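Attaching the record inline, Q. Sequence:
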Amino acid sequence: MAGYYLVHYEGEGWNQLTRLLRENHTALSYKDRTHLIHNAFQLVVTGKLPLGTALDLIGYLPLESHTTHILHFFRDVIDRQTWGDQGSVSERYLRSEVLSLACDLGHGPCLWRANQSFADWLHSKGTLSLPTDLTETIYSVGAQDDHGWEALLHAYSTSHSETQKHKILTAMASSRDTSKLS
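Structure, as predicted:
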């Protein structure tokens, strides 16, 4: 019988795969890793796997070198995410993690949207309310150039909100310009 099947590794299966990916992700081929991630998030969508399990599984991604292939399979999940301030707590959590990951992996449409949101926020002189669950991602993308990083530094120094300061500081620390971090 031919077709496409989702595999659900019940019991300790997902935990064992998560450990394997964190300890030696190349033990599985990049295609197997991609299908594993795809299966996990499809099972989350169907309610058969907790979101936390899928997010634990992708914890190894900073070690991944085949991100283009992974983004290809992950694109449908990324493209379904909105950039507004709506949804249930679990939908917002998923959106936050997925869009943060997509931007970290260099997904063009995600970076474009985050940059546009950051530019709108800058143009409003910080009065525009960004989606709470996406603020840190938007700031992190904005912090990648000198103008954005300086604007965040100013926002940090004038903010009275500890929550806001934490998001700004985390975003500034994500700068790829290591001279700014010393």
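The longest helix spans residues 30-45. The two ends are 59 Å apart (CA to CA).

More tomorrow.
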